[in-house]
Amino acid sequence: MPASTAVLKAELRLFLREPFTLFWIIAFPTILLTILGLIPSFRDPDPGLGGDRVIDLYVPVTVLLAMIMAGIQALPPVLSGYRERGILRRMSTTPVRPGSLLAAQIVLHFAAALGSALLVIAVGRLAFDVALPGDLPGYLLALLLGALSALALGAVVSAVTPTTKATTVVGSIVFFPMMFVAGVWAPVQSMPGLLRHIVEYFPFGAASQALNQAAGGNWPDWTYLGVTAAWAAVLVAAAVRWFRWE
């Protein structure tokens, strides 16, 4: 435990020295929400959305975006870099196992994404009068499942790519479709029926729907929670199966 704590502290110092990573995880989702909130029509109730405002729908989306940024864009190059430089292999010969380093990275990226989520919710409330999540336990559960899916997907990307450059390329290829299914380009609730049903079978589409329902004060549909949890389980299993220490 002391060794793992020391690794976590060391990785935290390194993590804080990466301003671009911190910007994309913590600041970018809030900046995107602010830009969207400044569009007048997005602050008006929309009958096509059941009387909700577009900006109300985008708060859960940008919360999920922070998780996707941390899991798919930020985490994989770090893991691949450690493996490519032989750090994980060398650690396997010491009392500090490589798993301690991986756990530290996952904890730090999740913490950064959670901080970003809190910032998004606060700005949405204070700047655009977006209601706080009505069903907090359901919201937290959907958020945790979405974060687990994002981090596990990032670990899979790192596992199947041989170099850091390849990891960055593949991560970017995966990133943009995941942004779409999460509702960044258009909220899932506003998508046409068939497209919406397809998107809901992807982890971030289902998580977006679950977060939106919890934000409105309802317990998330178990179908959405189940889809997100199933994806998380499959991705974690794949990451464990395919990840290489060297």
3D architecture notes:
This protein has helices spanning 2-16, 19-37, 54-84, 87-91, 98-128, 136-160, 164-182, 193-199, 203-215, 222-242. The mean pLDDT is 89. Helices cover 76% and strands 0% of the residues. It has one domain (2-242). It is mainly α. It holds the Pfam family ABC2_membrane. It is a multi-pass membrane protein. Residues 20-246 form the ABC transmembrane type-2 domain. Keywords: Antibiotic resistance, Cell membrane, Membrane, Transmembrane, Transmembrane helix, Transport.
Q: Averaging pLDDT over every residue, what do you get?
A: 89
Query: What class would the helix/strand composition place it in?
Result: mainly alpha
Tell me, briefly, the overall form.
elongated
Number of domains: 1
**Largest sheet: number of strands, sense, barrel closure:** none
Helix coverage percent = over 70%
Task: Indicate the proportion of strand residues.
Answer: under 5%
Oligomeric state of the chains in view: single chain
CA gyration radius, whole angstroms = 18 Å
SSE arrangement, N to C: HHHHHHHHHH
Which stretches are low in confidence, meaning pLDDT under 50 for 5 or more residues running? Answer: none
Count of individual beta strands: 0
| Number of continuous helical runs | 10
In whole angstroms, the N-to-C terminal distance is 24 Å
Main location: membrane
Subcellular location: Cell membrane; Membrane
Protein name: Transport permease protein
Family: Belongs to the ABC-2 integral membrane protein family.
